[in-house]
Amino acid sequence: MKILLAIDDSQASRSAVDEVCRRPWPAETEVRLLSVPSRIEMMILRENASPSMTDKIGKLSDSHSLGFVKDAATILENRAPNLRVMPMLLGGRNANEVILREAERWNADLIVVGSHGYGPIRRFLFGSVSAAVALNAKCSVEIVRNNLEKLSA
Protein backbone atom coordinates (compact mmCIF):
# COMPACT_ATOMS: atom_id res chain seq x y z
CA MET A 1 0.00 0.00 0.00
CA LYS A 2 1.18 3.53 -0.78
CA ILE A 3 0.21 6.35 1.58
CA LEU A 4 0.96 9.98 0.78
CA LEU A 5 1.01 11.82 4.11
CA ALA A 6 1.03 15.56 3.41
CA ILE A 7 2.12 17.70 6.36
CA ASP A 8 3.05 21.20 7.42
CA ASP A 9 4.20 22.48 10.79
CA SER A 10 0.76 22.45 12.41
CA GLN A 11 -1.09 20.59 15.13
CA ALA A 12 -3.43 19.24 12.44
CA SER A 13 -0.48 17.61 10.68
CA ARG A 14 0.79 16.15 13.93
CA SER A 15 -2.66 14.62 14.40
CA ALA A 16 -2.43 13.13 10.89
CA VAL A 17 0.97 11.60 11.71
CA ASP A 18 -0.48 10.18 14.95
CA GLU A 19 -3.39 8.67 13.03
CA VAL A 20 -1.08 6.91 10.58
CA CYS A 21 1.01 5.58 13.50
CA ARG A 22 -2.07 4.34 15.33
CA ARG A 23 -3.26 1.91 12.66
CA PRO A 24 -2.12 -1.52 11.60
CA TRP A 25 -1.04 -1.39 7.95
CA PRO A 26 -0.24 -4.21 5.54
CA ALA A 27 3.36 -5.38 5.37
CA GLU A 28 5.59 -3.33 3.07
CA THR A 29 3.34 -0.26 3.30
CA GLU A 30 5.18 2.81 2.04
CA VAL A 31 4.58 6.29 3.44
CA ARG A 32 5.70 9.25 1.40
CA LEU A 33 5.91 12.06 3.95
CA LEU A 34 5.40 15.16 1.82
CA SER A 35 5.77 18.80 2.73
CA VAL A 36 5.23 21.66 0.31
CA PRO A 37 7.35 24.54 1.63
CA SER A 38 6.50 28.13 0.86
CA ARG A 39 8.57 29.99 -1.72
CA ILE A 40 10.55 31.68 1.05
CA GLU A 41 11.34 28.33 2.68
CA MET A 42 12.43 26.92 -0.70
CA MET A 43 14.74 29.90 -1.29
CA ILE A 44 16.34 29.42 2.14
CA LEU A 45 16.66 25.70 1.50
CA ARG A 46 18.38 26.26 -1.85
CA GLU A 47 20.76 28.86 -0.38
CA ASN A 48 21.80 26.54 2.45
CA ALA A 49 21.98 23.33 0.43
CA SER A 50 25.05 21.85 -1.16
CA PRO A 51 25.20 21.79 -4.99
CA SER A 52 24.25 18.11 -5.06
CA MET A 53 21.34 18.83 -2.73
CA THR A 54 20.11 21.64 -4.95
CA ASP A 55 19.96 19.12 -7.80
CA LYS A 56 17.91 16.78 -5.61
CA ILE A 57 15.71 19.36 -3.91
CA GLY A 58 12.84 16.84 -3.79
CA LYS A 59 14.70 14.91 -1.10
CA LEU A 60 14.82 15.99 2.52
CA SER A 61 17.86 18.08 3.46
CA ASP A 62 19.50 18.93 6.74
CA SER A 63 17.90 22.38 6.72
CA HIS A 64 16.72 23.48 10.16
CA SER A 65 13.89 25.48 8.60
CA LEU A 66 11.92 22.28 7.92
CA GLY A 67 12.88 20.20 10.93
CA PHE A 68 9.25 19.24 11.49
CA VAL A 69 9.48 16.90 8.49
CA LYS A 70 12.43 15.09 10.01
CA ASP A 71 10.64 15.00 13.37
CA ALA A 72 7.54 13.47 11.76
CA ALA A 73 9.69 10.88 9.95
CA THR A 74 11.34 9.93 13.25
CA ILE A 75 7.95 9.58 14.95
CA LEU A 76 6.69 7.34 12.15
CA GLU A 77 9.83 5.20 12.19
CA ASN A 78 9.71 4.79 15.99
CA ARG A 79 5.98 4.25 16.46
CA ALA A 80 5.27 2.32 13.25
CA PRO A 81 8.50 0.49 12.39
CA ASN A 82 6.76 -1.70 9.81
CA LEU A 83 6.21 1.34 7.57
CA ARG A 84 8.78 2.34 4.97
CA VAL A 85 9.00 6.13 5.32
CA MET A 86 10.39 8.50 2.70
CA PRO A 87 10.40 12.23 3.56
CA MET A 88 10.09 14.61 0.62
CA LEU A 89 10.01 18.34 0.00
CA LEU A 90 8.40 19.52 -3.22
CA GLY A 91 8.03 23.16 -4.14
CA GLY A 92 5.04 24.61 -5.91
CA ARG A 93 2.66 27.50 -5.96
CA ASN A 94 -0.36 25.68 -4.51
CA ALA A 95 0.10 22.90 -1.96
CA ASN A 96 -3.05 21.10 -3.07
CA GLU A 97 -1.84 20.92 -6.69
CA VAL A 98 1.57 19.60 -5.61
CA ILE A 99 -0.05 16.97 -3.36
CA LEU A 100 -2.43 15.83 -6.10
CA ARG A 101 0.30 15.71 -8.74
CA GLU A 102 2.63 13.68 -6.51
CA ALA A 103 -0.17 11.29 -5.49
CA GLU A 104 -0.97 10.63 -9.14
CA ARG A 105 2.68 10.38 -10.21
CA TRP A 106 3.48 7.95 -7.39
CA ASN A 107 0.18 6.07 -7.81
CA ALA A 108 -0.79 6.53 -4.14
CA ASP A 109 -3.57 4.40 -2.69
CA LEU A 110 -4.39 6.90 0.05
CA ILE A 111 -3.70 10.56 0.80
CA VAL A 112 -3.76 11.59 4.46
CA VAL A 113 -3.94 15.29 5.36
CA GLY A 114 -4.76 17.25 8.48
CA SER A 115 -7.61 19.73 8.73
CA HIS A 116 -6.79 23.06 10.33
CA GLY A 117 -10.46 23.65 11.10
CA TYR A 118 -10.51 27.24 9.86
CA GLY A 119 -13.83 29.03 9.83
CA PRO A 120 -15.85 29.74 6.68
CA ILE A 121 -14.48 33.26 6.12
CA ARG A 122 -10.83 32.23 6.22
CA ARG A 123 -11.60 29.17 4.07
CA PHE A 124 -13.34 31.42 1.53
CA LEU A 125 -10.44 33.88 1.39
CA PHE A 126 -7.55 31.42 1.39
CA GLY A 127 -9.07 28.11 0.33
CA SER A 128 -8.73 24.75 1.99
CA VAL A 129 -5.95 22.42 0.94
CA SER A 130 -7.67 19.39 2.47
CA ALA A 131 -10.99 20.15 0.72
CA ALA A 132 -9.29 20.72 -2.64
CA VAL A 133 -7.38 17.45 -2.28
CA ALA A 134 -10.51 15.52 -1.27
CA LEU A 135 -12.52 16.91 -4.18
CA ASN A 136 -9.89 16.30 -6.85
CA ALA A 137 -7.89 13.22 -5.83
CA LYS A 138 -8.04 10.05 -7.92
CA CYS A 139 -7.49 7.90 -4.83
CA SER A 140 -8.97 7.72 -1.34
CA VAL A 141 -8.40 10.70 0.95
CA GLU A 142 -8.52 10.82 4.73
CA ILE A 143 -8.80 14.20 6.42
CA VAL A 144 -7.73 14.02 10.05
CA ARG A 145 -9.11 16.57 12.46
CA ASN A 146 -6.86 18.14 15.01
CA ASN A 147 -6.76 16.09 18.25
CA LEU A 148 -7.43 19.27 20.21
CA GLU A 149 -10.68 19.77 18.27
CA LYS A 150 -11.83 16.29 19.31
CA LEU A 151 -11.20 17.11 22.96
CA SER A 152 -13.19 20.33 22.85
CA ALA A 153 -16.07 18.96 20.75
List the main descriptive attributes of the protein structure presented here.
single chain; 153 residues; alpha/beta; Rossmann fold; 5-stranded parallel beta sheet; globular
Task: Explain how this protein is built.
Residues about 55-60 and about 150-153 have low confidence and may be disordered. Helix 1 packs parallel to helix 4 and helix 5 (about 95-105) runs parallel beside helix 7 (about 130-135). The chain is globular. The chain has one domain: HUPs (Rossmann fold, 3-Layer(aba) Sandwich), CATH 3.40.50. The chain is of the alpha/beta class and about 150 residues long. It contains 8 helices and 5 strands. The longest helix is centred in the middle third of the chain and has 13 residues, at about 65-80.
Mind sketching the topology for me?
Layout: E1 2-6, H1 11-22, E2 30-35, H2 39-48, H3 51-55, H4 67-79, E3 84-89, H5 95-106, E4 110-115, H6 120-126, H7 129-136, E5 140-145, H8 147-152
Parallel strand pairs: 1-2, 1-4, 2-3, 4-5
Helix pairs in contact: 1-4, 5-7
Short description:
This protein has one domain: HUPs (Rossmann fold, 3-Layer(aba) Sandwich). It is 48% helix and 19% strand. The chain has 8 helices and 5 strands, in the order E-H-E-H-H-H-E-H-E-H-H-E-H.
